[in-house]
Amino acid sequence: MSADAPAVPLLELTGLTVDFTTEDGVSRTLLDGVDLSLAPGEALGLVGESGSGKSMTVRAITRLLPRAATASGTIRFEGADVGAMDAGALRGYRDGGVGLVFQDPRAHINPTRKIGAFLTEALVRNRHLGKKEALARAEAVLAEVGIDDPARRLRQYPHEVSGGMLQRVMIASVLLAEPRLILADEPTTALDVTIQREVVGILDRLRRDRGMGMVFITHDLDLALAVCGRVAVMYAGRIVELRSAETLHERAAHPYTLGLLGSRPAIDERSERLSAILGRPVSAFEAGPGCAFAPRCSFATETCETTPPPLTEFDGGLVRCGRVEEIHAHRKSEEANA
Amino acid sequence: MTGMNAVEVHGLNKYFKAHHAVADVSFTVPAGGSLGIVGESGSGKTTIARMLIGLERPSSGTIAVMGRDRSRPARSGSERNARARELQIVFQDPYTSLDPSQSARAAVDEVLRHHGGLSSAERASRLDELVDQVGLTDRQAHARPRDLSGGQRQRVAIARALAARPKVLVLDEAVSALDVSIQAQILNLLADIRAETGLAYLLISHDLAVVRQLCDTVLVLRRGRVVEQGDCGHVLDDPQEEYTRALREAVPVPGWTVGA
Predict the structure, then answer these.
(1) Quick check: B260 pLDDT over 70?
(2) ipTM
(3) How much is the pTM?
(4) CA B202 to CA B211: how far, in whole Å?
(5) Contacts of A263 in chain B (CB under 8 A)
């Protein structure tokens, strides 16, 4: 970022918390005090397992939470308080400010309407374009996301194209609204690896060309590192580590991040044994009073179980671990002895 | 028995009307060996698994497991049972393959009863052994599937498959739907089980790193045809075919940058 970069972040989350009330009236915390800031044009990865709150973060940002869930804290988009937006402002924000790409495009597209109708609907309704002009624009954007013969695709139904093609159509539909922020929730998880590479390549190129910000949600840490400038690792509804993608492999300091890195088998060698993390991931409401990761952490002490650690600066990133310095020193001395 | 291949497949073909889903596929898995079948959607890998367990009938070609031909449907209940004792399968989503009303122990016990020959005391001790082998706690073993996590349910499915003391275990994307930290636990468990029992694995997967971790040999499949097969290390480190190379390079690894 140069010195004259705009001072107002594109997106700023402060103490974002989401509570869910069950049918029995029990309140359960799903997201617990998330602070995040995204500069215009920046790509940020949110990585975590089940219950980490990564998808809930996206739903809160778009105010698309389930009825039984309530958000607190603040969400600012280009300085405007999203929580305080009236219906008109919210519509403008969702139609042109943020664009959403989901994991399963088939669940988010009307199967009875042609791709052309799907892509032009918003242009005709919100931008008051003529049908012909809207179709021409849709065709141009399909070409931009690497779809051959876009005119023919516009006349096809969703079931007539592959999953990878349909995800490109979804990306095209987002681009037509010219958003400043893309929220991509596991956009390539359901795709074959070779198609995944094409789709993330397209997302990345378009984001750079158009200067859009992106929050990229994935369970795949290495994918996030390839697509994003910074990566936030989430556990039990909290951010536990945040660092630049470039340095994460080298400087990961939170025991959970280290565990995730050790859990994935490598493509270029077989490890004797994967350094699996014990137990299973938990949601925020299942976590104890202290560090949520403590029950699975081989470094945990009694203090960890009772005292929640804050997110603090460490080695160029942010880490939520009460013993981060000791653990770091211990690992360095082990490495030196090895 | 020594030197016998656990699985021998020769010239296997499957047509769905005009669609050639599996085209002239041959492979062997030695006793105690481990083969990964890798491919993307439409590669035919799941159709091969379905033919191995008898859910689909091959259009042509032969399948033998522990020397017993299973290219044609079993002609008797005892033949079907004999086949089941030789080869078992674990699917991707245990939630849909476990009975929601059955506890983990009951699900495993059902298989032990079916394959018979054990007194109730022997069955109880075999149950304890299986529950312990897959790393379930006593409390989890008495729980219903809905009260278990995805990883725990997959442990139940593995215990159930092991109950028949098979010689071959087919793992059809068995770790694909699991959280990364749980996937590592199950991969370690599967490696331990193979080391303890000498069971042969046939892993169907889209994930090259998982195949490398668990398998000795690999077969790369595309649109029903074998693209490349051989030792895991050789094929993945020095792919001879462009498609294998593309698959390999599409896996995000440290230093991988996006580029279509």
Answers:
(1) no
(2) 0.88
(3) 0.92
(4) 10
(5) 180-181, 183-184
